[in-house]
# Entry
Amino acid sequence: MRSTLKFAVPLAVAALALGACGTKGGETPAAGGSGGASQAACDQKIGMFGALTGPNANLGIYIQNGVNLALDDYNKKNPNCKVTLENYDSQGDPTQAPALAKKAIDDKKVVGIVGPAFSGESKAADPAFNEAGLVTITPSATNPALADNGWKTFFRALGNDATQGPAAAKYIKDTVKSTKTYVIDDASEYGKGLADIVRKDLGAQVVGNDTIQQKQTDFSASVTKVTSSGADALFFGGYSPEAAPLIKQLRDAGWKGTFVVADGVKDQSFIDNAKDAAEGTIITCPCVPPDVAPDFQAAYKAKYNEDPNTYSGEGYDSATILLDGIAAGKDRENMVDFVKSYDKKGVTKQLKFDPKGESADIKVFAYKVDGGKIVSEGEIK
Amino acid sequence: MLLKVNGLCVNYGRIEAIRDISFTVEEGEIVTLIGANGAGKTTTMKTVSGLRPVRAGTVVFDGQDITHLPSHERPVLGISQSPEGRGCFVGMTVMENLEMGTYARPDRKSKAVKDDLARVFELFPRLKERSNQAAGSMSGGEQQMLAMGRALMAKPKLLLLDEPSMGLAPKLIQQIFDIVTEINSQGTTVLLVEQNAAQALKRSHRAYILETGEIVREGTGKELANDPSVKAAYLGGDV
Amino acid sequence: MSTAATARPQDSGPGFRERVDNLPTAAKILLWALFAVFLFLLPLLNIPFITTEGSDFGGVLFTVATYVLVALGLNIVVGYAGLLDLGYVGFYAIGAYTVGVLSAEHGKLSWVVVVPLAIVAAMISGVILGAPTLRVRGDYLAIVTLGFGEIVRLTLVNLEYLGGAQGISNIPKPPGLELFEVPSIDWSSGAPVVDLDTTSTFLKFGINDFVPYYWLALVVIGLVLLFDILVKDSRVGRAWEATREDEDAAELMGVPTFRFKLLAFALGAAIGGLSGALFATKSGFINPQSFELLLSILFLAAVVVGGAGNRWGVIVGAIVVSYFPERFREFADFRVLVFGLALMLLAIFRPQGLLPPRRTVRAKRADDRQAVLEEGEASV
Amino acid sequence: MQFLIDNFAALTVTGLTLGAIYALVALGYTLVYGVLRLINFAHSEVFMYGTFAALWVVMLLGGRPGAGVGPVVFWVAMMFVAAMAVSGLIAVLLERVAYRPLRKRNAPPLIALISAIGASFVLAEIMGLRSRIVAWVGLEENLRDYVRNSRNNAGMPTIISPQPIFTVGGYNVTNVDIFVIIGAIVLMVVLDQFVKRSRLGRGIRAVAMDPEAAALMGVNRDRVIQVTFLVGGVMAGAAAAFYMLKIGITRYDAGFILGVKAFTAAVLGGIGNLRGALVGGFVLGLAENYGSALVGSQWKDVVAFVLLILILLFRPTGLLGESLGKARA
# Structure
């Protein structure tokens, strides 16, 4: 604890300004530190860090739903010693992230964080979490470089883009059997990173590249490029808001090739919006199909009246790891080691991390849009 | 009594433009307001046509209190103004400008409009020649005629003319005043604001002299034209 | 501040400023010093109600401080020179990226060198944008500057050299002096208690404590304010006022209006760049997402809401625009909606801004006089 | 470059389609600027509400792909009616709430911009929060399809599937392309004639040129302003319906970028000039497409803005100059 006693001028002024002032801290060590005592762990919290409001809120809410489900399970088992969830709503904005991280760090009852949900905000907030020793398990930020920063508190409960990209490329080559592939990205960190890996892996069979912008809605130039290239498959690195109008306009222009996208598009809204144009779209995702864990699927459906969505399962797993830690009497300081040595089967995969904090058990699955539903095509091996 | 202005005060922000002005215009008259630069003539005119809000006093037209009536409702009652300077719609043709004059007329679709147009073209033959030309491309005198013609198209009971002779060649000035007299003789009452005092007094039945926002003299046109002090102050040399 | 907000300069009674002006110099200095100390200690006092619950107060205060700085800069452009700039975020981004590129992405220059370079870079870009476009009429300038802001952002997204969408990480911190620790105040028991557990190290620029960055920003704001006061009261300030009120007349009087407009643009850009540099320093990570067009609009809203042309007004405006959304995080999804409503209500009920410049009243009177004269002129 | 030459026809036709939509939205900016000298920042939201009106009416009427000519004509007609009505209404409402109170108080023009920005936020957020609002009112069950994922895209069934009609330079021009381009031009001509020939249209022009002289002619300025907003809104509504036919997907923030583009088009052609809006829209649509082909789609917006800056440098009042109102220089 940093309770060094160094009275200085500012304190005196503060005291003057406030009149009667006592002091706190200094003599009492903060709660915890000893570990093990279950009473001490009783009012602990876990944090949920991500976009819960604003334009990017969907993803955050899917995760939050999973986290809440895990909390319900825990609190049902421990009715006398409930854990609460603290939300840090970043709106997915890296600018807001550091101050929120600090808030979480200052709340000594928070023993672990599920999140940050996006890669950008992770870069802004994770250095602070690392310095404070507050463990973070992200259920959705897939930028590969995040694990290379040497953050000892960083854990990722799913495969990153570096594993998903090659799988997507493999699927395009082996299953789609494309010979002429066009690659488009949305210039975002996620989309471009992924598309670049696919470009590299596909090599000479890439017949053309284009970059669009997020929030763009008219893709006429890109459509002309794709159709005139004679491509039989298109890989798009990006998110569903752009993927839906893109494939719609391509189909309207009469393009018949296979549309391949990644987890950023794995979202029912893609199908709702692209309608018939979405049919046959291949979606790769390092996320496990809901039917792999039927119990979780049933519980989720009972609570939220819909199937688990993208990263709901990862959110559930991430929270479960932290809750297991709390059950084992861990506090903030020894939670990092607990997560590091964690090895249990979760609803999405075997939950185990490598030394960099990456998930050790990574599977990438292919999904297909069929009859207005996202159905699993099995693991890409 | 067609127009009765009583105790009128108008401000621009904190500055008093006119103070406690009262005057009347009888049906069939030509009445002129004369005054130096900044005396408040144009402000008075704009107040009568409703472009300036009144701080105190009343304006009664044809027996109806119009002090706070919005300006765009006054043409319907029969007040029409030819604004000072270039008040024409420069982007419209001459014909379109004249048609704008009938904007507020309830009978704008009737044959009466055609007759009025003929009358305006008779008064201002130049406008007929140029009827398809853009107003902005005409000379200052022609624009002045257009503004008057446009005001007449509203078939007003009271025609407000603000500086009709401004910036015109002497020959044209004579012509304009002839036309004003002609319009009046055809039955339209005219309230005139003029800086060309000699001509205006000669043509008008009565006149008021404004100084720094107040009326200082009134009388018939002839009286004032022959008054030595008025002569010295406003008539200067000769026209 | 709040007293000032309610003072109405148009009223004849002594306003807040007059009352302060009438105090003896010593009292004035003491008052200012006390106020400054209060501002410095604000993040540590944790005053209930003022302190943001949902986010770290030090971090929020730093954000508020950057907005204040931006508002001061934009005020020179919009308030003093009367140029509508909808792309101010471009300069903010240029400042931030100069720091990022030169100290992390492609160079290892120290913070002390990089910040002046950021100011210069923003200033130069202001001149480059201003020189061809300031001859364009006011309303067109709005869209041209808006376009500039977007060009800057899209360039950042699409140029790998500038980090692309990934942005720039690990921007080094300024050199610090770890002198002593300042404790904060805890109010959880209802009464203020000095909390020795939560402290800020004086001038340690770490990643987990934003208070020193806030202090740094406060000092910078002080300097910029001083600069602002000097410039505004100089010949330059009067030239701006003349240009804004009537450009043609100013030109006739011999004011080279174009040069002064360009100067305003450059100075405004420089302050925007400085603000961006501070932002990059504190967050340590920047990406194009932080420089969206919407930010330009918020900046402009800060200036206009506060009262364009009054430096104290725009400071209040900046606080309103940046603090309230953080303070009322519990509105969550409704924050933007409420903010929009607030803007509309302010525009309707306080059209001159919260703190209108004293000039507005004077200028209004001059306008009235001119209106009378113009009508008179017609009868010459 | 080779790509641009090879696909010139395709890029031109799709550019014109997009340009037509820009042009229709640009009219709203130009009309309001003409009479009020202010940038109606919230016009983009007027457009956005039109897209939702078009979408919802098609959903309500059970629009689906592959229907016969009769139903399709009916759906399309209803789309336009709904979008134009809703956009027109929103525009008039906007004027009432955000602008008229300011005008009555003689607020400085900059403050009108702030009010417009505020109104723009409010309008967009109401749409973005529609699921919450509907839940409050308790209509969640009935309106679920209309409010689902209110922060997300909302897509419309393709009621006219694009069919090639004829081929130009290797590009199959589709029925949708033709409909959008011809439709937009027809609407522009109608508007042009309305402003030129009708009494109210003349009133609009008169107020734009000289508000005081217009008042002296009996033109009610408030009414003219209201009509101006209405007409601009109706045109934006038509643009929204075309947009939904072509793009088919909208979102609560879909107006912003399109609004910026349309405003750029208005300035490009010469703000205040109706024909300028048409020319500006088409030039912008083409430039974006050609530019995307030459330097990559990611530079599309940069191309648009650089073009704007260049044109303003050499023709400071836009391509066709300002014509709706010249009087108040």
